[in-house]
Amino acid sequence: MHVDVRTQDGTRLGRVEIDQATRPIRVRPGDADRDIFLEWDNAVDDAGNLRACIACGDSHLYRSRSLPQVTPFVALIAIAGATVSLLGFATSTWVLSLLVVVLVIDIGVLVVARTRLVCYRCGSVYGNLPIARYHRGWDPTVAEKISNDGDPEETFNRLRRLDREGTS
Questions:
Q1: Fewer CB within 10 A of the terminal residue: the chain, N end or C end?
Q2: What is the pLDDT of residue 117?
Q3: One domain, residues 120 and 141
Q4: Which residues have CB under 8 Å from 23's CB, separation 6+?
Q5: Cβ-based neighbour number of residue 159 at 10 Å
Q6: What is the pLDDT of residues 113-165, one digit of tens each?
């Protein structure tokens, strides 16, 4: 699995590749000047799925989809194609073929999108690993409960910002 390790305030430290079978105790992300100690105690369930953050130890993780950067452009082209077809200009062969190409690109974007886990507390992102069914999408009520410094509004806004940035 690969992990985009973040600090408690959401600052990205770097990406590390971790072998779940060996469960290393410490790693050093490429961009960090120090080692990160991983907390494997109670982090993996009986099926071998991650159930807690190994960077901060928090048990609250949520599912997130990573869409390619081309997604907004494909959506814009799809809206333009839908507008063209609604206005009645989709009767020519070349317009219909362009709409089919946009449909294929749109389906391709959905196929390329990967599901990953994100920690509510530190924002570390876990990808390229099996995800258990009990992990749900982002929930604002859980984000509000996970306040580090007693200010739920600040934690809520930080997590919303991380989610909008694509947690990358």
A1: C
A2: 95
A3: yes
A4: 38, 40, 44
A5: 24
A6: 889 999 998 899 999 999 999 999 999 888 888 764 455 566 667 667 767 76
Percent of the chain with pLDDT over 90: 28
Residue 9: domain span: 2-64+115-164
As given in the structure block, the two tokens for residue 35 are 């080692």
Number of domains in the chain: 2
Helix H or strand E encompassing 17: strand 12-17
Same domain, 27 and 60: yes
Instruction: Report pTM.
Output: 0.70
| Residues 99 and 40: beta-carbon distance below 8 Å | no
pLDDT at 52: 94
Same domain, 59 and 9: yes
